[in-house]
């Protein structure tokens, strides 16, 4: 299961969006004949990188509700097929060609594709008006914090089927006994540094071992996380212009290096309990309890620190994002599928991973967990019962509703940052020199 989660996270890359496209009709292709199956059904094709149990399960229920529509999946790699060198690049190139030519599938899964580029070329349908006009959707039940965060310039071009919640987890016992106070809903990375220094110093007085605020990640990996969690700071999603030559990026690199130099953070492995905090994503509601209790006897869920001037909130990932091709001749039928994904029937399927796009589904699951904890029926993977306070459950619910920043950036951009930033963290080049190199390379890539 952990390998599957890591695979999902690794391909959760890229999301941007920009100017609105026409949302009604068939985008000027109203006269184009709709494709039909042999038995006269309207064919809607969906392109997926790999097969997924959730979508295959939704297909059966959807076609039962809409017997006049035939969903057909186009799978790049079937279950069990080996990935060869260059296969992923081939997948992206094939999809690029299909979208640019207006051919290929009607619906594309976008989590591993350069969405920003497609939107800037007006290749994807803006779903805003379709959502507004759809009477089958209970909009007040939607996790609008997620949908709003996916909009760019007012347009919504991708629809997730679920999401993962980013969080910081702290050692509650240490945080509780220390006099160091902070508000995790508003703390910055500079405040995190100051607070960590004080906590490490206090712990050092009573422990022979040096404790770190964060461990196990290299400086360049931590920089990538910063860029992903604040991607709009470094790439303008509307114009697709890079901003890595900005003072903010240089300051981010300098601050990260300082925290490693001051031994607040380390790339060395740390034993469980030997770091004050750790950063993670909650893949399932159960991760709110199971994961943190592997590290601390009294874990505390916190919002991740943010850059100076950034609003409070936390990050999220989307394992899948579906977009409708703007030149599709079956936009109406394609939207019916997207809309069905947001129904209680689809969102309640056990095959769906992550948190639901429906508040009611999330609330039901959390209430079930809460009742099990109170009755003593909820057990940790170790078999031990666990106690969770009412306050912690309330914080968990609040965390879900404050997820408002997509942690995602183009894989190619991330590889450039990782490659070039190593020379800064090793002391070979200055922050300004590295920022300029990254800016030039990313700009070249975005202009391709």
TrEMBL record:
Keyword Lipoprotein: yes
InterPro entries linked to this entry: Bact_solute-bd_prot1, SBP
Database matches in Pfam families: SBP_bac_1
Keywords, in A-Z order: Cell membrane, Lipoprotein, Membrane, Palmitate, Signal
Gene3D superfamilies found in the cross-reference section: Periplasmic binding protein-like II
Name the UniProt record assigns to this protein: ABC transporter substrate-binding protein
Organism phylogeny: Bacteria, Bacillati, Bacillota, Bacilli, Bacillales
